Amino acid sequence: MEYQVNISYQFKADSDNEANEKAKSYISQNLQVKAIKDGVYSPLEIASKCKNFRKAKKEHFCVFFLDTQNRILGKETVSIGTLNTSLIHPRECFRTAILKNSASVIFVHNHPSGGLEPSAEDLNVTKRLKDAGKLLGIEVLDHVIVTTDSHTSLKERHLL
């Protein structure tokens, strides 16, 4: 089970001691620890599940298969390409999604160069996959690009 603690609280204090006391007081009154649901909620969570190929020297293209509650049914690497390209076809991307009765998918691939900007080919492939998903009734929720230490979401950038 995974857990998460998020604290975002700003305040003013006249000394370090006062700041420490205010922080302790705030935390003791407001801290809640709860298990993270077994569902996908953000590109960061998806990126964290791709540790096995984030540092790879070749492009890896992966698909996460999700149910109607956005729980992961499975994950599959559908293509391993070269340094800066991989061959992607909707047939391979949606085959397992159909077999698993997936409601939606999230695509992820790495950029060995370390750049987070989606290429023109990334955008073209994403459009083809989104169109194919519409025909099949399988929603494409996002396409996430990962690097060794960062990620970007085409959905968050309004490119999906």
Primary descriptors:
Cytidine Deaminase, domain 2, about 20% strand, elongated, alpha+beta, about 160 residues, five-stranded mixed beta sheet, 2 domains
Shape: elongated
Number of strands: 5
- Low-confidence stretches are none
Lateral arrangement of strands in the main beta sheet:
2-1-3-4-5
- What is the number of helices? 4
Q: Note the main sheet.
A: 5 strands, mixed
The CATH class assignment of the largest domain is: Alpha Beta
CATH fold naming of the largest domain:
Cytidine Deaminase, domain 2
Question: What does this molecule look like?
Answer:
With 160 residues, the chain is an alpha+beta fold. It has two domains: 1-36, no CATH class; 43-153, 3-Layer(aba) Sandwich (Cytidine Deaminase, domain 2). Helix content is 30%, strand content 21%. The chain has helices spanning 16-30, 43-48, 90-99, 120-136; strands at residues 60-66, 72-80, 104-110, 139-146, 151-153. A five-stranded mixed β-sheet has the order 2-1-3-4-5. α3 packs parallel to α4. It is elongated, with a radius of gyration of 20 Å. The protein starts with 15 loop residues before the first helix and ends in a 7-residue tail after the last strand. The mean pLDDT is 86.
